[in-house]
Every structure is written in structure tokens, then in C-alpha cells.
Amino acid sequence: MDNKGFISIEYLFSIFVILLIVISVLFLSQSAIESTFNIEDSVSHRVILDNVANEISQVNSNGNGFSKEISLPSDGGYYEITVENKKLTIEYANKKGETLLPLLNVDSKYKLYGGNSYLISKTDEGKIVIS
To answer: CA-CA distance, 18 to 13, in Å (whole number)?
Structure first.
């Protein structure tokens, strides 16, 4: 009788150790997967910001009166791009990213939202206007 009780205590201990290992592996894999999704989300929003910066730079580098229409994708969730003098900022899910446009002459501060289309134009005075 004593041997049977001792064996079941060993089994209970080994099952406890196995469960502990499985739970720790699941926790670590969940953290890795969540980190991958965060990186993917950050990269997709960075690409959107870089595309907007490139479009504004194209309009700025062309002559006065040049304009171009851009459509911001809506599949990246809610985000807001702020265009200020020499700087673009994207804000999404309590995160923030910036890029600089050193030769930019913006008329005023603009806010661009995902899923909308905007017309970027260069006025006769050489200022960038977004409507």
C-alpha cells in the first residue's frame, strides 16, 4: 500500500512539472506572436507615413500650381497624420511615428485621416496646401 501512494505522489509531481513547463512555453509563444503583430502594425503605418511624405515631396519638387491626389488606406485601422512645417507625424493605437521633410513649406497645420482622399497642391507662392 505504501508503494502505491508513493508512486501516485511521483505522478502528481511530474504532472505538475509538465503543466508548469507547458504553461510557460505557451506564455512565451504568446509574447512572441504578440510582438510580431506589433512589429507588423508598426511597419505598415510607417509605410503609410513614408508614402505620404513621398507624395508631398513630389508636389513640392514640381513647379508652382502642381497638384496630386492621394488616397490613404483604411485597412490599417484608425490613424491620424499631422502635417506641420517640416514634419509629418502619424498617431495610431497610442503609438506615434515621425518623419522630417526639411525643404517643406506648408501653408498651415493639417490633419489627414485614414480612408480619405486629399489633394496636395503647390500654390503660386510656393506653399503646400492640402484640401
So the answer is: 9
pTM above 0.85, yes or no: no
Q: Tens digit of pLDDT for each residue in 40-78?
A: 878 888 888 898 888 888 888 888 888 899 998 887 678
CB 85 within 8 A of CB 56: no
Cβ neighbours for 102, distance < 8 A, ≥ 6 positions apart: 86
Which residues on adjacent β-strands are paired with residue 120? 68, 130
Please calculate the CA angle 6-8-11 and round it to the nearest 5 degrees. 115
C-alpha triplet 102, 105, 106: angle, nearest 5°: 115
Beta bridge partners of 39: none
